[in-house]
Amino acid sequence: MGKIDTATTLYAWQVERRKCQNAAAQRRRRHRRKKDHILHSAIEHGLLSTSGSHHWHISAAGVSITSLEFTSAMFDSLGSDSERANIALIMAVENLSMRDVVKYGLIALGYAMYPEHYSNAEVLPSETWIERILFTINRQVNVMELVTAGVKTLVQLDGPKEWSGYLSLMTSTAEGERYFTTPPDLVRNAILPSNISFFAACLANCHLLGLAPDDFMKDDTISPFVLRRQKVPDDGADSDQLPGSETTASPSIPYQSHGSRNDMDPTVEQLTISHHPYLDVIPWPSFRARAIIASSMDPPLIDEADLCLDLIMEFIVGA
User: Which InterPro entries does the protein's record reference (predicted)?
Assistant: First the structure.
């Protein structure tokens, strides 16, 4: 039987599809070769080690990036409340995330961020992503310099005087307040998903809860929801409590639950355990409660710096 000329039996669109498939396969091969070259180069320079054929780890010989370094760089770069408020408004209005801060830092220092690295921030663990960014620039700068440059670039911009945008309208009007505090109704409410940054969502929740955005961005801030504990004087004067015992007072800010239970209402843990207010703006009450309990243990069951970094890098997408 003679050989069939498949080229003459294919439609034109099939030929084009095969060309596209072959071109895509070649791109994937080139990408794999480039990736393998980078990995082997990293091993040779002592930046990576492997415990198996597919498991890569940051080597102790390299410059390991910690979550504490990154978050500290973020907070320490902001010296005043006005700077904190300014960058919070800029990031919320422009829908920016921490990967944008890193990108602006690279630009300010004379580097560039590849598009694939920008998109990889959504799928890679935060520390891994940062390590890759630093590796691509041959570690000419450290993470402190990179984040500081990005933050300073944004701080120097003339930001908005007040919050504006889709979520701001919803938190500043009676209709918007009802939207936030009333359970959704599939008949009367059209549920339209919208992609917003973590900072924009945080600012919306700050307004809803009565929190100051600049306090939210301070490293040493204690949540105002925590019940203040006051010691009874030693003489016990005018008090039914034993001298030296503790009594609780009201939270430092009033919070109105609007007569209905909603996910942003403070949990018992928020009212009784000291914590940073970044946990107060997370929209899942069970997540807030577990995170506060775990971080208050001795030793802590979670690394708060890791959690904070993953949140501001938008790595946590649900709970």
Answer: DUF3425
- H/E stretch holding 58 reads strand 56-58
User: Do residues 106 and 113 make contact, with C-beta atoms less than 8 angstroms apart?
Assistant: yes
CA 254 to chain centre: 27
200's tokens: 């924009």
Give the Cα-Cα-Cα angle 90, 94, 99 (nearest 5 degrees).
90
pLDDT along the chain (319 residues), means of 10: 50 74 74 60 47 38 55 73 80 81 88 82 74 80 84 82 56 50 60 69 80 76 72 47 44 49 83 89 90 90 80 60
Per the CB < 8 A criterion, the answer to whether 197 and 232 are in contact is no
d(CA 159, CA 204): 17
- The whole-angstrom separation of Cα 39 and Cα 49 is 9
How many C-beta neighbours within 10 Å does residue 197 have?
19
Give strand pairing partners of 247. Answer: 230
Q: How far apart are CA 205 and CA 288, in angstroms?
A: 14
DSSP code string of 2-31: PPP-HHHHS-HHHHHHHHHHHHHHHHHHHH
Q: Are 264 and 205 in contact (CB under 8 A)?
A: yes
Distance CA 151, CA 75 (A): 9
